[in-house]
Amino acid sequence: MRKFSSDFLLGAATAAHQVEGNNTNSDCWAMEHMENTCYTEPSLDAVDHYNRYEEDIRLMAKAGLNAYRFSLEWARIEPSEGVCDDQEIEHYRDVIRCCRKYGLEPVVTLHHFSSPIWVIRKGGWEAESIIDDFARYTHYVAAKLGSEMNYVCTINEANIGLQIAAIGERYKRQMMAQMSKNQADAGADSTDGAVQMGINLQKMMDNQKAVLEENKKIFGVEKVDNFTSMRTAEGDILIMRVHQAAKAVLKELCPHLHVGLTLSLHDMQVVEAGGERFAEKEWEEEFTHYLPYIMEDDFLGVQNYTRSLFGADGALPYPDGCEMTQMNYEFYPEALEHIIRKAAASFKGDLIVTENGIAVADDERRVAFIEKALDGVSNCIRDGIPVKGYCYWSLLDNFEWQKGYSMTFGLIAVDRATQTRMPKESLEYLGSWRQ
């Protein structure tokens, strides 16, 4: 084992909506409680991290970690347009100071998928108004908390909507092919597994008509353009403009801050002749076309879980008999090193692995995954690539969006009946990589 230096940020990550509980002013909460919901269950109290954050931070420190990546919840901080809740911003100040108390560097994300309901009513993440709305929220956060932070991710997985749109189109083509063969089951599970978040794509597609009517009742619009909706090309660039506006606010108010965003990245591998053009096109859509908007960022948050395979006719399924995770990803920790090297070839700022992990029941496999992934990070650092940190996803077994509580990514298990924390061996193993 090659241990990391003392200044390397070694930690774990969470997202507010997935762990805090009772995020009642958010679009996700509203969608979880719809009659025609795509969520398998509602988040409810989640794992009560909102109240138990000190216990969770203390467990990280005890294991030897020195960083915690977490998100602020916009829907808590600005529950109504233009009206911010000072009590909620003080809550997040307490979380940041708790990190400092236990020797952890807070890596703060301003937006991790969930948004205030009022944002969606205005047109969501496809409306020009999102630029000024997010900049105002960012200004409030920076003015209140800027002196308490060093690292800020503006937006989590800025490319997720475009990925979901592409996979939605692929799913439609699969459905047409299956129907032509008179097969009722379109095999949607394999398609769901191609995007690095918990979605139920088949249910999303099947429910579209019913959802439009319910959307009008709840959001006042038929088409809900939340952050993880199937994004248009114009909306994709709009996200970049939002990021740049937020970064400008942060740098103006707090020049000391290290600012970046995070991207969901797959290890694009060509395994058959002729697959090169498909892999190059996917990488351009997933990464390269964002470079003009992020090249001046202080760091890039790299998020990777698995690889994608390509042949002469395009995307290929995972190899027969390969080990799969609960999320229907291939168990392939080697992907992280490949992605770091490929990103570093174009992006010349610092890199922080802001998410990397697996959902499995067997914690020994999690340990094996972490070992291989961190070997890859060490290799990159040895070769001079400026990787400044690694945050495992996730700290806790939590609410995996539309998949609910069935996906166990965590370093810590939670009995949700009592909210009792049960650290796994993988938590201590991750901490053992620090000198």
Could you characterize the architecture of this molecule?
48% of the residues are buried. This protein has a single domain, classed as TIM Barrel (Alpha-Beta Barrel), CATH 3.20.20. An 8-stranded parallel beta barrel has the order 1-2-3-4-5-7-10-11, surrounded by 4 helices. A 3-stranded mixed beta sheet has the order 6-8-9. By secondary structure, the protein is α/β, with parallel strands linked by helices. Strand 8 and strand 9 form a beta hairpin. It has helices at 16-19, 27-32, 49-63, 74-77, 86-101, 117-121, 129-145, 160-180, 188-192, 201-206, 208-218, 233-253, 276-286, 291-294, 335-344, 363-382, 425-431; strands at residues 9-13, 67-71, 105-111, 151-155, 258-264, 267-270, 299-303, 307-311, 314-316, 350-355, 387-393, 412-415, 420-423. Helix 7 packs parallel to helix 12 and helix 15 (335-344) packs parallel to helix 16. This is Beta-glucosidase. It comes from Anaerobium acetethylicum. One of its GO terms (molecular function) is beta-glucosidase activity.
Describe the sheet with the most strands: 8 strands, parallel, barrel
Total number of β-strand segments?
Answer: 13
CATH class: Alpha Beta
Number of self-contained structural domains: 1
Q: Bin the helical content.
A: 40-55%
Order of helices and strands: EHHHEHHEHHEHHHHHEEHHEEEHEHEEEH
- The coarse silhouette is globular
- Please give the order of strands in the largest beta sheet: 1-2-3-4-5-7-10-11
Counting DSSP H or I runs of 4 or more residues, the number of helices is: 17
Instruction: Find the CATH topology.
Output: TIM Barrel
Radius of gyration from CA coordinates = 20 Å
Distance between the termini: 11 Å
CATH homologous superfamily caption? Glycosidases
- What is the CATH architecture assignment? Alpha-Beta Barrel
Low-confidence stretches: none
Name the structural class: alpha/beta
Strand content: 15-25%
Organism: Anaerobium acetethylicum
Pfam families: Glyco_hydro_1
Protein name: Beta-glucosidase
GO biological process, one term: carbohydrate catabolic process
